[in-house]
Model the fold of this input.
Amino acid sequence: MNAVAPLLQLEAVDTYYGQIHILQGVNLAVGEGELVCLLGGNASGKSTTLKTILGIVSPRNGVVRFGGEEITRRPTAHRIARGLAIVPENRRVFAPMSVLENLEMGAYLRPKADLKEEFERVYGLFPLLYERRKQLAGTLSGGEQQMLAVGRALARHPKLLLLDELSLGLAPIIVERLLPVVRQYAEESGCGVVLVEQHIELALTIASRGYVLSHGEIVLRGDAGELRRNQELLISSYFGEHAARFAEPRP
Done:
């Protein structure tokens, strides 16, 4: 990453649910135009990390910075207004509304004078959305709805995009089409991206760097290519005490 200050930075973050210590001293950074993946099994702390970035939960200790501003205690609305956007798990498009109306909802904070340009940018990335712009979102296929969910987030021209389990429930070929578009957008616009994903190989293929969470701690971090090459260490970090079961060759 460049020497300039990161777009997003978590410093020694501890997040609790009641008395349960979830995130434990998490340090994480994302630069402008950088796609970083956050890996980990179930109950590893990935969702809590996103909620901490969004401001849905507040850390008990540590600091969250976004765009040079400390936002540790700032509400979610402030973070969204500053340029944070999320593609939630399971897409959650507005089913009774058209594709265009969904995009308009995503761009509700943008000046009306900019909407045409924003929609053209989204249509350029996802031509199918232009073809289906009058169609109800609920009648789209799962892959098309995910495309719309990404397009809706991009319509507001975010500075930081959070992608929560983009591949969940989708055919691999659909995900393989979506992720390069996200990376292209990040590189061209300078938008930082945090990709939360259980599909290890796919995430590390598309990302520049990766973090591995286990029981709320960052147990491994590094260049995505290096992580892919060091499969034994990656599997051990990802699955912890259960690593041997996943590393054993199958008959």
Observations:
- Residues 34-43+82-247 form a domain with the Rossmann fold fold (CATH 3.40.50.300).
- The chain has eleven helices and ten strands.
